[in-house]
Amino acid sequence: MLLCDGQSVPDEMKLLFSNESPELSCRTTFFDSVTQSCPLELRELGEEMVRKYTGLPHATVVLGGLLSRNKLPTEWAKMLNYIAMDSPYLKSCFLQLGLFPKDQAVSTRKLLLLWIAEGLVIQQDQQRMKDVAEDYLNELINRNLFE
């Protein structure tokens, strides 16, 4: 059991070295494999995605979890196109979806509030943060990355 109190000193998460990120992603993506090796047809796509998050252990693990759900090259290419997009906030919202079980229904209201509470939604002009979060969700749905 992990306990947290005001007297404890939090662990400081360290950045990964460039050779550690692909290894961590591979272990997370292919955890059911005895050899834990990435098939050749997926290796280049996987390495390119991991480079986007090199050094960030949590993002690397979440990405590996998302990739483990579908190991088709076409799906990985879609994921790479998404990750290459400009909005770091939208990327973060998408990656956070990897924390939920694959076929679990998630309350839209709770999801939007979670994104806002985590600081993933940035207020734009006079728009309410809830409206911006809904725009993010709609963008993910339009890209066929979320149902």
Word description of this protein:
The chain has 147 residues and is mainly α. The protein has seven helices and no strands. Helix 1 (20-29) packs across helix 2 (40-52) and helix 1 runs parallel beside helix 3 (57-68). It starts with 19 loop residues before the first helix and ends in a 5-residue tail after the last helix. The mean pLDDT is 76.
Could you write a compact summary of the structure shown?
The chain is mostly helical and 147 residues long. It has helices at residues 20-29, 40-52, 57-68, 73-83, 88-96, 108-117, 129-142. It is globular, with a radius of gyration of 17 Å.
Mean pLDDT metric: 76
What is the string of SSEs from the N terminus onward? HHHHHHH
Helix coverage percent? 40-55%
Into which percentage range does the β-strand content fall? under 5%
Head-to-tail CA distance between termini: 34 Å
Gross morphology is globular
**In total, how many beta strands?**
0
Number of helices: 7
User: Which radius of gyration do the C-alpha atoms yield?
Assistant: 17 Å
- Name the poorly predicted regions: none
Secondary structure topology:
Blueprint lengths: L19 H10 L10 H13 L4 H12 L4 H11 L4 H9 L11 H10 L11 H14 L5
